[in-house]
Amino acid sequence: MAMIDWLKSAALTGVVIGALAAAGACAAAPAGGVADTSSASPYGAYLAGRHAQEKGSYEAAARWYEQVLRTDPRSAEVISRTFLMEADDGHFDRAVPLANEALKLDSSDAVADLVLLVERAKAGDKAGALARAEALPDDGLHRYAGPLARAWTRMAMGNLPGAVAALQDLDKFDGFAPLEYFQLGMIYDFVGNAANAEEYYKKTLDATGQLNWRLADAMANFYQRHGRTDEAKAIYSRFVKENAGSELAESVQSDKLTATPAPLIGSAVDGLAEALFDLASVVNRPETVDLALVYDRCALALRPNLTVAQLLLADILTDQEKFQQSLAIVTQIPATSRYSWSAQLRVAANLEALGRIDQATAQLQAMAAKEPRWASAEIQLGDLLRGQKRFAEAADAYSEAIKRLKAEGMPPRWALYYSRGIAYERSNQWSLAEADLEHALELKPDQPLVLNYLGYSWIDRGEKLHSGLKMIEKAVELRPDDGYIVDSLGWAHYRLGDYASAVEYLEKALELVPEDPTINDHLGDAYWKSGRTTEARYQWRRALQFKPEKEDVKPIEAKLDSGLPTATRAGGG
Q1: Domain end point (choices 410, 445, 480)
Q2: Whether the Cβ atoms of residue 180 and residue 148 lie closer than 8 Å to each other
Q3: Is there a domain that residue 520 lies in?
Q4: Is 271 part of a structural domain of the chain?
């Protein structure tokens, strides 16, 4: 009996319990490395692999599954899992042989076809790559990859009409017109059809209504190569205006546009890498991040120095809390790259996430000093300092960023005034905070975060109570499923002495965010004021379980001991 089948049949016996114990005993990995799998039983290795996979530790999962395959080399499930882990972790040398095995077990395995397509394209086997592209499915999770892959593998065979027809298959999917138009622009640009290339680049811009970086770079590159430098500058200038303070906008500002650039796409393989990167960017959402990871890994396997794909990979890994891996990627981007500034900001972000606060702070301060016109390092420094509760210093960093943006003639950003307003409020500079928050609302009327913060602050201070409550109610109307904003509305009613309404909204907030210590604490206070003392103490105990801020622990403990004082106005949050 195959090992996985045996494991399933044993599920109602004590065997799985023993296997879990074995997995727990051998799953620990040395810091920065992968666990030694050599002494694990196959059952323990399988369960340890599943655990590592669920935690997003793909390299560790692959090593555990490889241990299982040594015992049961025909297990379809373990072959599939090992292959996916190797592909997700970018180990295509190990993924390719497993892809062949995976296709023997399931001829519709799209990721296996995609990995083998990449392998054939890298080897220069145009016909083999095309065959793999043609095998990609037209439905299921990977239905968007097929048209892109077929377009560029057909281009490698010199089949322009076939490539255009492949991209037109994207018509059947809602929301994919901009990607289709952009790829058509790239293809016509690649073959030297300038009129069609420009037409489709402009159609992309019309379809999106917004100039994203990759489109801006492609259009400016196109115009510059065709001797239309003024139009290239206009495209970059528009991008800068629409993305004031972003690191890419700042990098563009340093481009002098003096030399004719190389085309973004130099070969059909480059085009395939670009298409897979673009698709990864489109599907980079929490619910489809694994697809984004696979496509971006494929793009980098085809074109290892595609820096925008490296940055995307770093961002995905950071979102998955794989900060050390993300740091390793961005530190490889050379200082000579036009994306060096973006990479350095990500270095600082990963250092901060790893708890290396002094290094992150020093990095951002050095960057801000090096480029005194640019605001992004000061903005990120402000965010870091605010996260460390160094609010006065954060306000200073935000002020410097605002000053720099004004000096460069950049449009004001509501989020920057909102952030500085928070820093001012938390550093007891209320008049400055109020001015910033009101200005943020002038720049972005009905912005729910600003409505919530300003309205709550007024109520908390006993000022403009009616206006404050209306603001928070509007914020809840705009974001009814935001537990933190609903909590603010409940707490506002508590501050106003309407304990029945407070309980109603705070219970809803707790449904939306069950394990937040502040919301549990607030609900405990509202219960107490409503005479529900047993439930109040239950909520305060829960608040302590969910690790509140250090300064809130003693007040919550005091309420557990003695309840709320009769004249109290506030809870722990």
Answers
A1: 445
A2: no
A3: no
A4: no
pLDDT tens string 357-401: 999 999 999 999 999 999 999 999 999 999 999 999 999 999 999
Q: How far apart are the first and last CA of the chain?
A: 58
Q: Which two tokens stand for residue 17?
A: 């319990």
Q: Give tens-digit pLDDT for 99-129.
A: 888 888 888 889 999 999 999 999 999 999 9
pLDDT at 59 over 60: yes
Question: Who's near 469: CB < 8 A, 6+ residues apart?
Answer: 455, 459, 492, 493, 496
Of 129, 120, 130, 83, nearest to 103 by C-alpha is 83
Indicate if the pLDDT at residue 4 is higher than 60.
no
Q: What is the pTM of this model?
A: 0.85
Angle at 124 between CA 121 and CA 126, to 5 degrees: 70
Q: 98: domain range?
A: 1-24+37-107
pLDDT in tens, 84-98: 888 888 888 888 888
CB 240 within 8 Å of CB 338:
no
76: domain CATH number?
1.25.40.10
Q: Is residue 46 part of a domain?
A: yes
Residue 573 has pLDDT above 60, yes or no: no
Query: Does residue 37 register a pLDDT over 60?
Result: no
> How many structural domains does the chain have?
2
How many CA atoms within 13 Å lie on the side-chain side of 215?
26
Q: Which of 89, 107, 125 is the last residue of a domain?
A: 107
Residue type at 506?
L
User: Using an 8 Å Cβ cutoff, are 247 and 376 in contact?
Assistant: yes
Closest to 136 in 3D by CA, of 108, 104, 162: 108
Taking Cα atoms as reference points, which of 362, 371, 363, 367 lies closest to residue 347? Answer: 363
CA torsion 430-436-442-446 (nearest 10°) is -70
- Among the listed residues 301, 261, 249, the one whose alpha carbon sits nearest the alpha carbon of residue 280: 301
Lowest mean pLDDT among 88-97, 129-138, 202-211, 514-523: 88-97
CA–CA separation, 81 and 98 (whole Å): 10
Alpha-carbon distance values, 68 to 42, 93, 276 (Å): 5, 19, 32
Q: Is the model more confident about 469 or about 60?
A: 469
Distance of alpha carbon 354 from alpha carbon 332, whole angstroms: 18
Domain assignment present for 166: no
Angle at 77 between CA 71 and CA 82, to 5 degrees: 75
List of residues 6+ apart from 439 with CB closer than 8 A:
412, 417
pLDDT value for 437: 98
Determine how many CB atoms are found less than 10 A away from the CB of residue 554: 10
Helix, strand or coil for residue 138?
A: coil
Return the structure tokens found at 173.
């999917």
Q: Using alpha carbons only, what angle is made at residue 54 by residues 50 and 57, rounded to the nearest 5 degrees?
A: 90
271, HSE (Cβ side, Cα atoms, 13 Å): 25
